[in-house]
């Protein structure tokens, strides 16, 4: 499918979600998670590397989003740009996790830790583990702002202005972060192909 | 050899291809954590396995643990929320549930009462005060919550008790002393009461012979027959009454623990 068509469909879904959220958060939240979990999880996983940590951070992101939604007046909810907003929260979660790491192990405050996984399948689909490790290493070598920009652009499929909004950086800096980051990765890829 | 522009495009494409699906458990964890959906776990009880559903507000539902997909469907139908199977909930809630199911304690189990009327909440609260091994008539609940004529309404609240066993509606019996109906069937009610060391045959005999209240000839106090004080009365001092006014006329006063009311 054409990527642009897919993106428009997503934007349309978000507009509808936001309208429904303004009237009924609890009844709409499940659909919000269903619509955004794969995108957020993919991006966060590219940012932090570890699949389990990525799942935990995705969970935190959505729960923070839920709490925030409950505290907003309907007018504010109606004006949300859902994807940018979720990514803003996600980036905060990722950043604060990075700050806390090393200081103490992550402690979850949740009611329940273990969900019964009915069809536990290998959760990385069509991923070659060798490639996975390569990308993980190379992405972790990039400066954080470049890594974030590249991941949001190509994994999250956010526009430059959306990335600028989520990272609170000027659009110009975002563009150069994306280009520099991508150039470094392309260069490494070239080395990998040649070796 | 590729140009650097082509190479960057390939890199971007490879990055995009790495989009993965979120783990299957993420949705459930998020919805449970936010309190938008409930989790449930299967527990052993005196009447066999039961499903116990819970969320951050407390325990939300109890059902016979026979068919999980039927339970999930019924739950969604009744409460309008999704529900996911989980391992045990956190340790405190898990212990509270186990204690309540085994009638070990009258526990401080949190119950999710959202969506229930004030009247229903009052009925359920009062019901949860009945100790294991004791029974009270519907009319007692009605009188205790200040609605002395609402016996039938009490009955219908208990017939749709969202958390049977944990809120012990099986300890509420008909005002004539018969065991009466139960939302899991009268047979299971008998089983539960027997499990709590109540002699259900004796309850039935008392009902037939009109023995509603039991007094002590030494203290001149009268009780419901299953009250912990009544059970201590030695047979030689037992005095049976068919109505509270007969007991009062005989110079007896109501027990302060079980607070017998006129049926």
Walk me through the structure.
The complex is a heterodimer of chains A (195) and B (263). Chain A is mainly alpha-helical and 195 residues long. Chain A has two domains: 102 residues, Rna Polymerase Sigma Factor, Chain: A (Orthogonal Bundle), CATH 1.10.1740.10; 68 residues, Winged helix-like DNA-binding domain superfamily/Winged helix DNA-binding domain (Arc Repressor Mutant, subunit A, Orthogonal Bundle), CATH 1.10.10.10. Chain A is built from nine helices and no strands. In chain A, α2 packs across α5, α2 crosses α7 and α3 crosses α5. In chain B, 37% of the residues lie in helices and 15% in strands. Chain B contains ten helices and ten strands. Chains A and B meet through α2, α3, α7 and α9 of A and α1 and α2 of B.
List keywords for this structure.
heterodimer; A: 195 residues; mainly alpha; Rna Polymerase Sigma Factor, Chain: A; Arc Repressor Mutant, subunit A; 2 domains; 0% strand; globular; B: 263 residues; alpha/beta; Double Stranded RNA Binding Domain; 3 domains; 4-stranded mixed beta sheet; 10 helices; 10 strands; 15% strand; elongated
